[in-house]
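Blackboard transcription, Thursday session:
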Amino acid sequence: MSAIFPPAERLWYKHPIDRVEGTWIAIALIWCLIMFAMMVGWHIWGKQNLSTETYRTTPEMFMAKTQAMVDKYTVRTEKDENATPVVAPPAGSDVYFIARLWSFYPVLELEKGKTYKLHLTSMDYNHGFSLQPANINIQIVPGFEHVITVTPNQSGTYSVVCNEFCGIGHHKMVGRIYVK
Ligand code: CUA
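(Written on the board underneath:)
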C-alpha cells in the first residue's frame, strides 16, 4: 500500500505496510524515544531544569512550619498594606513560601551563593510561582508540598508572579524575594 495514495481496497489494514510508511513510523518512534530519554537526561545535564520533590501536606501543617520560620527569622516588615514580614532564614535551611488568594507569604531575603531548600504550597487553589526576571516557573498545588533546592546566583529584587488564573485578584498576586 502506498503512503501517499488512498487505499485501492476497502480492507486496507490487511495489506502489507509500504516501505515509505514503515520507515516514517520507525523514524517517529526512534525520535520519540530520543525525546523521552532527553527528558530524563536534562534533569542531570540540563542547567535550566528544576527537579522538584513533592510530598503531601495540609494547609495547617504547612502553615505551622511557615509561621515557626517567620517567628524565628523575621528581620523587618515590608511597607505594603499587609505589612508582610521579611524573613531571612539561615543558609542551608528549609524555607517555606505560601501562595493563597491573593498573596504570597512571607517575603524572603536570601543570600547570594547560598543553597536553600524552598518549600512551596497553596492554602486554597492552584497558583503559580513564576520568578521574575529569572525564567523559573512552577505550579503550586494545594495539598502538595513542592521542595526545590535553590542557589541564587545573582543579587537583586525578584518578583514572584502567580501565573495560574485564580480569580478576581489574580493580577494583584505578586510576591517578593530579595537576594543579597
Ligand atoms: Cu494565584 Cu493567580
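Lecturer's comment: The chain is about 25% helix and 35% strand.
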